[in-house]
Amino acid sequence: MPYTWLNLQSHDAAAQDYLLALIERLSDAQITCCATSGCTLTLNKTQLFLTLAASTFKPFTLDFNAEKHRRKISKNALKNSLLVRACQAHLRPVVWDLTCGWGQDSFVLSSIPTTVISIEQHPIVGLMVHYAHWLLDAPQNWHVEINSAESALKTDQYPRPQVIYLDPMFPVKPKGRLSHKEMQILSTLCPSTLQKTEALLHLSLKQPGIERVVLKYPRKYNPPLKPHHIILGRTIQLCVYHPHGWLG
Ligand SMILES: C[S@@+](CC[C@H](N)C(=O)[O-])C[C@H]1O[C@@H](n2cnc3c(N)ncnc32)[C@H](O)[C@@H]1O
Predict the structure, then answer these.
(1) Ligand 1, closest atom to CA 148?
(2) Residue 20 is assigned to a structural domain of this protein
(3) 236 in ligand 1 pocket by Cβ < 6 Å?
(4) What total of structural domains would you count in the chain?
(5) Ligand 1 centroid – CA 97 distance (Å)
(6) Candidates 116, 121, 124: which one to mutate for ligand 1, based on the most atoms within 8 Å of Cβ?
(7) Is 99 in the pocket of ligand 1 (CB under 6 A)?
(8) 86 in a structural domain
(9) Residue of the nearest CA to atom 27 in ligand 1?
(10) What is the pLDDT along the chain (248 residues), one digit of tens a residue?
(11) Does the C-beta of 167 come closer than 6 Å to ligand 1?
(12) CA-closest candidate to residue 107, choices 144, 54, 157
């Protein structure tokens, strides 16, 4: 077993080969990040589970075929989705989700269907999303890339973004007001990126051909830059920005 953080219990050759091929594409730095993350990935039958050392979390799995995810892409849910509205996904733009996390927002956007390029910097999180994407039979209009947003934007591997979506990490809620398990695991693995959000927002607005940047932000905080308009949710706001000189 070459990786101490990987536990292959599956006899499903296709699942195992796919996961190993993904891992082989990681850089040395990303492999080191996996090894020092305190996580174990376990492949059991066709499910991939993430276990966090020194935590009380039960093994976590990500499967977009599950009912809780399917519900979010029902006709009615998509019609009422603030995210779909903010990204104008019904116009089928190329959307880059630069802070993919568990890919739940990317999954919703890709189901429209529109082209979605999802970028996640943490290799363990990225592997989980990649694998969940494969379990969905790898929809051709959705690509997942394990990379930092800043480097991904420099590549020409994908169609250029017309819409960029940002959902940065926020500091963990004070004790007693715990966010749901998925978010708690992300907060443990990925540090808050609030300070970097403004830089990422400016970088996004400078991308050639960009029509809008959508930033998801807690309602109770002021976003780092004044938006052109805001779509309000119960606890979040979707801040919409247009590039300088936009004539739309
Ligand atoms: C709040 S989560 C996003 C949750 C996501 N919207 C979802 O639906 O699951 C933020 C994620 O952005 C990632 N991230 C933050 N800064 C990044 C960057 N510069 N490049 C790529 N990923 C980044 C973090 O690693 C984290 O997984």
Answers:
(1) 20
(2) no
(3) no
(4) 1
(5) 9
(6) 121
(7) yes
(8) yes
(9) 101
(10) 589 999 999 789 999 999 999 999 999 999 999 999 999 999 999 999 999 987 778 899 999 999 999 999 999 999 999 999 999 999 999 999 999 999 999 999 999 999 999 999 999 999 999 999 999 999 999 999 999 999 999 999 999 999 999 999 887 665 545 568 888 899 889 987 777 999 999 999 999 999 999 999 999 999 999 999 999 999 999 999 999 766 65
(11) yes
(12) 144
Task: Provide the whole-model pTM.
Answer: 0.96
Contact between 60 and 127 (Cβ < 8 Å): no
**Degrees to nearest 5, angle at CA 238 with 237 and 242:** 140
The residue range of the domain holding 189 is 63-241
What span, in angstroms and rounded, lies between the C-alpha atoms of 168 and 238? 12
Let me know: does 112 contact 141? Beta carbons within 8 Å. no
Phi, psi of 7 (to 5 degrees): -125, 110
- Name which of 182, 167, 116, 183 is nearest 144 in CA terms: 116
- The CATH number that applies at residue 164 is 3.40.50.150
CA of 91 to the centre of ligand 1 (A): 24
Q: Whose CA is nearest to atom 9 of ligand 1?
A: 102
Residue 142 domain-assigned (yes or no): yes
Residue 28 CA neighbour count, 13 Å, CB half: 0
> Ligand 1 pocket, 190 CB below 6 A?
yes
Ligand 1 within 6 A of CB of 148: yes
User: Residue 87: which H helix or E strand, with range?
Assistant: helix 82-87
User: For residue 76, is it within any domain?
Assistant: yes
